[in-house]
Amino acid sequence: MTRYRVIMESVASTPTLLFHVAFADDWEACSRFGEYSVATRGVPFDGVGAIYVCEYADIHSVLKSRYSDVSEPLLLVSISTAALVSEGIDFTLSPAPRILEELPMTDGVVAATFPIGEGHEFPSETETAALG
Q: Which residues are paired to 44 by β-bridges?
């Protein structure tokens, strides 16, 4: 497993943004403490020691496989890999993207949050990049 705590220019294949699907209620509850501590649906960070994230191309499959039965409001959280590196937050892309620490809910690290629609609609990659 490769951990990234390096200068971004030396990791050319690292995506600019990673994405996490969050329950809006979980996101709001964690915001009171300034750190997001949910790994994935129903699993706290302490349960697995990582926050599950994905690249943009994988968002639809994550929604379909993990959230297809959900009616509660969801958020798509875009996370800046450059900010993770600059803040010294460990993350990995292999074998699957994971953030290896609780996520600081700062403006730099969290590039943007987007509501996910009832039909699992979410912004295009261009829209997320423009706002992130």
A: 38
Pairing of strands 98-99, 103-104: unpaired
* CA–CA gap between residue 45 and residue 102 (Å, rounded): 7
Q: Render pLDDT for 75-106 as a digit per residue (tens, 0 to 9).
A: 999 999 999 999 999 999 988 999 999 999 99
Residue 69 CB neighbours (<10 A): 5
CATH number of the structural domain 15-131: 3.20.170.20
Longest alpha-carbon distance in the chain: 42
CA distance 103 to 77: 11
Q: Find the Cα–Cα–Cα–Cα dihedral 26, 27, 30, 33, rounded to 10°.
A: -160
SS3 63: helix
Strand partners, 91: 99
